Amino acid sequence: MAVFISATGTDVGKSFFSALLMAKYGDSYGLKYFKPIQTGSEDDRAAVQGLTGLPESSFLKNYYSFSFAGSPHYASELEKIPVDTEELVRHLYSIREERIVIEGAGGLLVPLTRSFLTIDLIQKSEIPLVLVVPVSLGAINHSLLSLEAIQKRNIDCKGIYFLGTPDDTTEDNVRTILEWSGAKFLGSFFFDSKERLSREKFTADCVPRFDSDGLLKDLFL
């Protein structure tokens, strides 16, 4: 089964989380990584592949790639290449039973066009969602707003995963978000988000610590 990875905003760590999933379970489950829409010069597909060291065959090509680092709706307008959301929905719906880690662009309410949001894509493609949540100050408001939007649209949210550099608010943030939302806790991973990780350190230090309780295995069954 495919799983859609979204977050409470940009730069929360969706690509890093996707890389951890791919590195941990890519070989054993035959996972593939797919980012339908990429904006900006930094290529998340290449970054995930670089960290994991998995073969090119494990990475599907982006459906759209825009050079401007901004919201997809605006980036596509600048390049005069409209995003065909109906085609994108059909494509994602057709692969929903495959074992694919699908990474969204930015947060849930990021527009793909002037009339279509990322959360609409998730809802219409009927792909289960994992929400990546930061652990630092400000996480509660952004997380609860995102989870309210998910619940309002009856999206199958498999749970939330906490990620990032902890601070003095982290312990209570996690507790409060879980208590208020009722969402399933899928785990947490604390790291220095400013550190540039080599593949060697990622493989040796991060992957063994990730999902040590095996809570994420069921996503792909």
TrEMBL record:
Its EC number is 6.3.3.3. It is found in: Cytoplasm. Belongs to the dethiobiotin synthetase family. The keyword Transport does not apply. The active site is at 35. InterPro entries: DTB_synth_BioD, P-loop_NTPase. Substrate binds at residue 39. One of its GO terms (molecular function) is ATP binding. Its main location: cytoplasm. It holds the Pfam family AAA_26. CDD domains: DTBS. Pathway: Cofactor biosynthesis; biotin biosynthesis; biotin from 7,8-diaminononanoate: step 1/2. One of its GO terms (biological process) is biotin biosynthetic process. ATP binds at residues 11-16, 44, 103-106. GO terms for cellular component: cytosol. PANTHER family: ATP-DEPENDENT DETHIOBIOTIN SYNTHETASE BIOD 2 (PTHR43210:SF2), DETHIOBIOTIN SYNTHETASE (PTHR43210). Keywords: ATP-binding, Biotin biosynthesis, Cytoplasm, Ligase, Magnesium, Metal-binding, Nucleotide-binding. It catalyses: (7R,8S)-8-amino-7-(carboxyamino)nonanoate + ATP = (4R,5S)-dethiobiotin + ADP + phosphate + H(+); (7R,8S)-7,8-diammoniononanoate + CO2 + ATP = (4R,5S)-dethiobiotin + ADP + phosphate + 3 H(+). Catalyzes a mechanistically unusual reaction, the ATP-dependent insertion of CO2 between the N7 and N8 nitrogen atoms of 7,8-diaminopelargonic acid (DAPA, also called 7,8-diammoniononanoate) to form a ureido ring. This is ATP-dependent dethiobiotin synthetase BioD. Homodimer. Mg(2+) binds at residues 15, 44, 103. Its cofactor is Mg(2+).
